[in-house]
């Protein structure tokens, strides 16, 4: 009972101003149950009956128990129970003369009642249950579509449900179009991207605002039509094909491309004659211990053979290599590994030294240069600086700039490599 004398049923959960009310707008109104007549009614300050609730009452009154309650559907009702010979409670009166009341099927749910006594909940077309075991908890869109953005705004159909409606027009209406038929109402709904549903009642197209509440198909909605926007579904075959093309194929392509690029870059360095001499030397640095006998040379013989060690070929992991064959042991602080040798060639602008005079590589040298840099990034000693597969692909395709690894740039004589 409101302070203004109006008896109202309201769903506070949905901020509903009232789905049933008596309209008794006067002061000092009271709800009365009469013990002698078993009837319920509203009286004003002078005790006069201003609104009768109960209709037919079982007689004699003293043979029955009576109670008034609001059931789980939100309907106010009065019931009677025979004291000596009864099979249960019998309803004498209810505020709303149907079971589909108060959004009992939740948001985007629709109440169905064929016998005006029982009801079932289903989802509005285009929606699926939030909880498959309890549809009354409401429904959510099966496919989320922005109807106000191209090209999605036309990617839907209008489904018509006969003898159905979204009642409580004054609170749920978005806009109204008068003097239209079913096709005119369809067009009005299709052209309005802000509305998802409409009701066609007596040649009036009533477009509904969100959320969609109180949708019902019952005796009270006979002759009406409910219209709902339903997004178009992709066929299972088309969806499966798209999933394969976009996800599986792309993922495999990225991995294979990056792996091949890395292997090509490393192989180009590894199999060149100059760096191979460093690798072979390190592999057989302890050859005697595994039973391999190399010819030994005296220092004077090596000095003579190398013309006084005048021409150095490069530096291995722990020694310098001279032409034709002299190894000078050095400390690890002065050593250069294979990757350092490649970096030093880059710093000097002589990366072609790594591949010698291979015409196939030199014909597309810019590509080799890019692959060599990517390979050095991938074998960076600090895992935090190693690029992801996505960045590797972007660097190989030329969409992402390739720089010198931070920890290696200090070894170069220039601050930036172009």
From TrEMBL:
Gene Ontology process terms (BP): recognition of pollen
Segments passing through the bilayer: 248-271
Keywords: Disulfide bond, EGF-like domain, Kinase, Membrane, Signal, Transferase, Transmembrane, Transmembrane helix
Domain of life: Eukaryota
GO molecular function, one term: kinase activity
Keyword Transmembrane belongs to the record: yes
Pfam families per the UniProt record, alphabetical: S_locus_glycop (PF00954)
InterPro entries reported in the protein's UniProt record: EGF, G-type_lectin_kinases/EP1-like, S_locus_glycoprot_dom
EGF-like domain mapped to chain residues: 96-133
Protein name from the UniProt record: G-TYPE LECTIN S-RECEPTOR-LIKE SERINE/THREONINE-PROTEIN KINASE SD2-5
Species the sequence originates in: Salix koriyanagi
């Amino acid at each position: 009972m409101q302070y203004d004398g109006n008896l109202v049923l309201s769903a506070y959960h949905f901020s509903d101003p009232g789905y049933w009310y008596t309209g008794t707008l006067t002061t000092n109104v009271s709800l009365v149950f009469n013990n002698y007549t078993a009837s319920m009614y509203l009286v004003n300050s002078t005790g006069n009956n201003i609104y009768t609730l109960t209709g037919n009452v079982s007689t004699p009154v003293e043979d029955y128990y009576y109670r008034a309650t609001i059931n789980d559907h939100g309907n106010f009702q009065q019931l009677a129970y025979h004291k000596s010979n009864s099979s249960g409670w019998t309803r004498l009166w209810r505020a709303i003369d149907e079971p589909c009341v108060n959004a009992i099927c939740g948001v985007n749910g629709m109440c169905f009642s064929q016998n005006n006594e029982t009801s079932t909940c289903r989802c509005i077309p285009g929606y699926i249950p939030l909880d498959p075991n309890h549809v009354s908890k409401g429904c959510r869109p099966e496919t989320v579509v922005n109807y106000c953005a191209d090209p999605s705004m036309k990617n839907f159909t209008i489904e018509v449900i006969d003898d159905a409606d979204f009642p409580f027009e004054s609170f749920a209406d978005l806009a109204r179009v008068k003097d239209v038929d079913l096709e005119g109402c369809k067009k009005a709904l299709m052209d309005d991207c802000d509305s998802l549903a409409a009701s066609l009642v007596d040649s009036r197209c009533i477009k509904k605002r969100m959320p969609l509440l109180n949708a019902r198909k019952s005796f009270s909605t006979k002759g009406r039509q409910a219209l709902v926007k339903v997004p178009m579904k992709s066929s299972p075959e088309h969806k499966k094909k798209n999933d394969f093309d976009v996800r599986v194929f792309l993922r495999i392509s990225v991995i294979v491309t990056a792996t091949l690029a890395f292997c090509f870059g490393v192989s180009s360095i590894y199999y060149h004659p100059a760096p191979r001499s460093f690798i072979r030397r390190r592999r057989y640095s302890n050859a005697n211990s595994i039973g391999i006998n190399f010819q030994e040379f005296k220092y004077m013989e090596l000095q003579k053979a190398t013309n006084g060690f005048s021409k150095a070929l490069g530096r291995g992991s722990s020694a310098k290599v001279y032409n034709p064959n002299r190894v000078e042991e050095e400390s690890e602080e002065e050593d250069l590994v294979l990757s350092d040798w490649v970096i030093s060639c880059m710093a000097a602008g002589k990366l072609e030294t790594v591949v010698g005079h291979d015409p196939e590589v030199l014909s597309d040298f810019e590509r080799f240069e890019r692959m060599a840099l990517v390979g050095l990034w991938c074998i960076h000693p600090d895992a935090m600086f190693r690029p992801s597969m996505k960045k590797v692909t972007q660097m190989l395709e030329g969409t992402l700039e390739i720089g010198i690894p931070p920890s290696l740039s200090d070894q170069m004589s220039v601050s930036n490599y172009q």
